């Protein structure tokens, strides 16, 4: 690569990190509902907590925007570089996930990288990623635990990259991104092992007037702290864990 190409590559990676750092859940929550998703529910700035804290419509908007955060920088990199430098393109994809998980605008905090990573992966390897998305959807609605689908899909992503004989840089990138996403799900894995992970109820399956199920007793016990003396006691917010 020439000096100009190195400069272009660096610019694309920085741009990807900045785009990944944008948080639709925080912005839309504050702008449209006056809610900071980091202070309600699981406190996570990702898609799952957005659904719980902001409702289905805004949750879908956050999901789409988080996916686009991954898609757009990778597509720009592929167009600018003409697919001639796969290592740089993979670094761009990785930068979007890092930006989402460790946002510059949220003081190093963020989501868990599933939606943004899925978008980046879709732009890198459309067919293998379509299969992974199918696995995610089947598992999520089959067991009604988002983290199960997230973890399984993340593991299958590099597997599909190998099966579909993607470039070595893409396979290595898939393994690294999978490791980052799985690392962000460590607590979810512990809760799954202990059978404490939250099960959701799809909005269309609830009866009219029915409210979502409360978190299990173990979750409530972990998150509810006694109020100090001489103050009014208030109910603790729902703290079911996020997975995106």
Keywords:
mainly alpha, 244 residues
Q: Which helices and strands, and how do they pair?
A:
Elements: H1 3-21, H2 24-33, H3 47-54, H4 56-81, H5 86-101, H6 114-124, H7 126-143, H8 146-163, H9 168-184, H10 186-193, H11 217-223
- Into which percentage range does the β-strand content fall? under 5%
Gyration radius, in Å: 19 Å
How would you describe the shape? globular
Count of beta strands: 0
Give me the number of helical elements.
11
Binned, the helix content reads 55-70%
The major β-sheet equals: none
Mean pLDDT, rounded to whole units? 86
Cα(first) to Cα(last) distance is 36 Å
Ranges where pLDDT stays below 50 over 5 or more residues in a row are: 213-242
From N to C, what is the helix and strand string? HHHHHHHHHHH
| Count of structural domains | 1
Q: Structural class, please?
A: mainly alpha
Brief write-up:
This protein has 244 residues and is an all-alpha fold. The chain has helices spanning 3-21, 24-33, 47-54, 56-81, 86-101, 114-124, 126-143, 146-163, 168-184, 186-193, 217-223. The chain has one domain (8-193).
Describe this structure in words.
This protein is mainly alpha-helical. The protein has one domain (about 10-195). The chain contains 11 helices and no strands. It has helices at about 5-20, 25-35, 45-55, 55-80, 85-100, 115-125, 125-145, 145-165, 170-185, 185-195, 215-225. Helix 1 (about 5-20) packs antiparallel against helix 4 (about 55-80), helix 3 packs antiparallel against helix 4 (about 55-80) and helix 8 (about 145-165) runs antiparallel to helix 9. Residues about 215-240 have low confidence and may be disordered.
């Amino acid at each position: 690569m020439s000096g100009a190409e190195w400069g272009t590559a660096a610019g694309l990676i920085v741009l990807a990190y900045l785009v990944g750092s944008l948080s639709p859940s925080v912005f839309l929550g504050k702008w449209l509902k006056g809610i900071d998703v980091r202070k309600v529910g699981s406190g996570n700035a990702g898609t799952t907590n957005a659904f719980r804290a902001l409702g289905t419509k805004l949750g879908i908007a956050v999901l789409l925007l988080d996916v686009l955060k991954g898609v757009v920088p990778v597509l720009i990199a592929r167009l600018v570089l003409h697919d001639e430098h796969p290592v740089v393109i993979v670094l761009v994809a990785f930068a979007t996930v890092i930006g989402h998980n460790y946002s510059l605008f949220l003081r190093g905090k963020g989501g868990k990288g599933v939606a943004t990573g899925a978008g980046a992966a879709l732009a890198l390897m459309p067919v293998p990623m379509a299969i992974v998305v199918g696995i995610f959807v089947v598992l999520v609605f089959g067991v009604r635990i988002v983290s199960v689908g997230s973890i399984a899909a993340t593991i299958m992503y590099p597997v599909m990259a190998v099966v579909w004989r993607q470039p070595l840089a893409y396979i290595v990138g898939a393994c690294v991104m999978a490791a980052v996403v799985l690392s962000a799900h460590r607590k979810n894995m512990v809760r799954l092992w202990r059978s404490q992970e939250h099960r959701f109820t799809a909005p269309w399956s609830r009866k009219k007037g029915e409210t979502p199920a409360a978190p299990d007793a173990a979750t409530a016990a972990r998150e509810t702290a006694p109020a100090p003396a001489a103050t009014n006691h208030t109910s603790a917010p729902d703290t079911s864990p996020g997975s995106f």
